[in-house]
């Protein structure tokens, strides 16, 4: 499984920061964030609340475009080591320049430099999805959407929403999503992770997204499962993340297999891998163990993921060749 070429669609750039990288950065900046690591050097947290705090402390070390360039490179090294050949990552003008367009362009340029280098040296292709942060509210999301619209193109290919699912409603963010859509960006939204099936319905109806981040709790509503299958809505499923945060007890209890059997287009991603002690290889291994998924199944999912990718047709054709190899 580890050697299979993989496509990942749901990865938060800051959340994918290797702990060793963050420790090094903190040391350079004389920041004391030693409390967020355990004795083995991994991120340490007790529950979801605590996870958010640790996440925030870790990302406080990221302050300049140069930091993001190094971050992107460190993350892509990890992904490439797992056999990922194409990845889409969530990036946010909220963390990169505070929604100032000029500053955002500098961060973006730095991340693209890293992506170009990784493509040349490691054969992995990266694209960005701008995300607004739900708990920052609709007004800030407008600023984020404007940055996304101004920089939409070959590299920024999508727009989404992350953050606390329990705050606000998707319809509050309609302006931001309309702005991104008009700029030609493809759309996704986190839903159906902490929120139930109704949150998935709301994202589909109010934001007209074509992909859902997580979406797994759709399983609680059979009619919605049928609807997702009929519409061909793609779920960016992150099983290890859901298990680590206690939404499901273990991989066997995770609905990814049931959703797949009922015709929903599922994909596999790691979300914030070092926080959940996972990698794409580990996701594959756990799914193989839990559901006896074989190479054919993983290859089907990789193709499904590439079909759902937001990049242009030329890039897709290039990656498709790598999947066939
Ligand atoms: Zn996520």
Topology:
Elements: E1 6-12, H1 19-28, H2 48-59, H3 65-81, E2 84-91, H4 101-122, E3 125-133, H5 138-150, E4 156-162, H6 174-182, E5 186-191, H7 197-207, E6 211-214, H8 222-231, E7 234-237, H9 239-244, H10 256-261, E8 265-268, H11 280-291, H12 295-308, H13 313-324
Parallel strand pairs: 1-2, 2-3, 3-4, 4-5, 5-6, 6-7, 7-8
The structure holds zinc ion.
Zinc ion binds at residues 10, 12, 162, 190, 213, 271.
GO molecular function, one term: hydrolase activity
Protein name: Adenosine deaminase
Domain Adenosine deaminase: 5-323
Features:
single chain, 325 residues, alpha/beta, TIM Barrel, 2 domains, eight-stranded parallel beta sheet, globular, binds zinc ion
Describe this structure in words.
Helix content is 47%, strand content 15%. It is of the alpha/beta class and 325 residues long. It folds into 2 domains: 6-17 and 66-311, TIM Barrel; 18-61, no CATH class. The longest helix has 22 residues, at 101-122. It is globular and about 50 Å long. Bound molecules: zinc ion.
Concise summary:
With 325 residues, the chain is an alpha/beta fold. It has 13 helices and eight strands. It has two domains: 6-17 and 66-311, Alpha-Beta Barrel (TIM Barrel); 18-61, no CATH class.
> What's the CATH class label of the largest domain?
Alpha Beta
Tally of discrete structural domains? 2
The first-to-last residue Cα distance is 14 Å
| Topology-level CATH name of the largest domain | TIM Barrel
Q: CATH homologous superfamily of the largest domain? A: Metal-dependent hydrolases
Q: In one word, what is the shape?
A: globular
In which range does the helix fraction lie?
A: 40-55%
The overall pLDDT, averaged over residues, is: 96
Largest sheet: 8 strands, parallel
* Quaternary structure annotation: single chain
